[in-house]
Design goal:
mainly alpha; 6 helices; 73% helix; Permease; DUF6803; transmembrane helix; membrane; transmembrane
Length: 162
Amino acid sequence: MNMTHYMELLATNQPWNLIIFMAVPVILAETVAVSELFILFGRNLSGGLRRLNKIAGIIAGFYFVGIFIYLFKTAVIPLTAAGEWRGIVDVLAVGFYLSGVIPLFGISLLEIGLLGRGKTEEEKLKVHAVFVAIFLVVAHVAMILGMLNPDIFAHGGSGMAM
């Protein structure tokens, strides 16, 4: 069985790649997501939970920008130049994973005040929640596609054994 480059990245150099590329960004994003729920329900826009949310949001975005740049230079460009992608599932898994940079970096820019200027705190929180939702969707799509055997959709075959 073949695996996507996304899954291969996580499986190689255990446990470090799993920690660097999966655990850290997901823990930061989940911290933001869970604290966001409590902030939204409690409407406490200035307490300790909001500070944790803000710090985790800033770190997550800038951390993922680093991951994006690193993987784009060391994986995406070389794989594309050499024609070594393992089919559409492989490209989509990596693409969805890397697209997480948009909402996570959006959260960071919102938190440091470069995005959402002129908006009220409640309006910023709504944008923040949308970014969190987008990240959760793209991250889960990447995980699902990443776990597929890329041979299933390669070369026009059904990939299903009977």
